[in-house]
Amino acid sequence: MIRPADDLEAMALAVETIRAGGLVSFPTETVYGLGCDALNPKAAARIFTVKQRPTFDPLIVHVADRAMLRRVVTEVGSNADRLIDAFWPGPLTLVLPKHPQVPDIVTAGLPTVAVRIPADPTALMLLRLSGRPIAAPSANPFGYVSPTTAQHVRDGLGDQVDVVLDGGPCPIGVESTILSLVGACPEVLRAGAVSLEDLRTLLGPRVQVAGPPSGVTMPGTLTRHYATRTPVTILSRVGERPMVPPGRRVGLLALSKSKECDDRFAVVEVLSPGGHVTDIARRLFAALRRMDEHGLDHLYVEPCEETGLGAAIMDRLRRCAAAR
Ligand code: TXA
Ligand code: MG
């Protein structure tokens, strides 16, 4: 059931649900999560079932503060310390050595755990009042576009979630940056709102970007992920107009307003008339879902510049467009 996040009874029910091993979907600043007590392996197993997520794809553990962090990791080095001071609470997930009390199912058997303090007030209240670290992947069926509203969660997972806390649309709109701190150099495993540039400013030029996805241990980096049912092609530049064969229903997701008339497209959506990258990120997943509802033969999407948040936007679009 969907309940308003600012309703105290709904929050109390959500807290009880987490403690009892149930599933709660809650807003974060990035996307909606599907959460459970991270130390309860049965509850975690239900997340994999509900999402139809393969068990080799580990979950992100959310914590309320540094005290809770110490319950799920064995070591916080100096790099993590500086990153935590600079970016938490916020959209940065750190991969650190796992504490033995975190069940293997949560980390897919890895000796590491991905962890962050989210910035959303509802998420923080749920963590604090339940007193539990909360394992939460994005609240969508595996492989589909992540949810940025409570209704998206409902559309994708139906009534399989015990409680959905509705805190309104997510302000960032793309998933957190994932940074591994267990290798020789810090390595970005997934682009997000904390950009490579931000990370290099803090840790220096040795921050690496992970190579082409292996697709084995990191399904968030699987080539085809975050995907719509409608086939997607990314145009090579803003303003490019593809050939539309007669009889084909084709959509265009434009980033900013174009003067041209686009009546060859069955549907056109403009993400940000002013071309602001934060607006594009915030609206992207909802727009992809709307486009998917039109049952188009094909969807074309304009690209954006790949710096800052633009890198995360292009990463998600490429995975969405990857050949099926
Ligand atoms: O913004 C976010 O990160 C959202 C909100 C809910 O916090 N969560 C999210 O979770 O996007 P999910 O499960 O959709 O993506 C988590 C990614 C997966 O690709 C997984 O492979 C990776 O994190 N991951 C989790 N644990 C890991 C680990 N120990 N080492 C490397 N990658 C890990
Ligand atoms: Mg996900």
Provide structural commentary.
- The chain is an alpha/beta fold and 324 residues long.
- The protein is 31% helix and 18% strand.
- A hairpin with a 6-residue loop joins strand 2 (24-26) and strand 3.
- It is globular and about 60 Å long.
- Bound molecules: threonylcarbamoyladenylate and magnesium ion (MG).
- Residues 137-138, 146 line the site of magnesium ion.
List the helices and strands and how they pair.
Layout: E1 2-4, H1 8-19, E2 24-26, E3 33-37, H2 41-51, E4 60-62, H3 66-72, H4 78-87, E5 92-97, H5 104-107, E6 112-116, H6 121-130, E7 134-135, H7 150-157, E8 163-166, E9 177-180, E10 187-190, H8 196-203, E11 208-209, E12 232-234, E13 250-254, E14 267-270, H9 277-293, E15 298-301, H10 309-321
Parallel strand pairs: 1-8, 2-8, 4-6, 5-9, 10-11, 12-15, 13-14, 13-15
Antiparallel strand pairs: 2-3, 3-7, 4-7, 5-6, 9-10
The structure holds threonylcarbamoyladenylate and magnesium ion (MG).
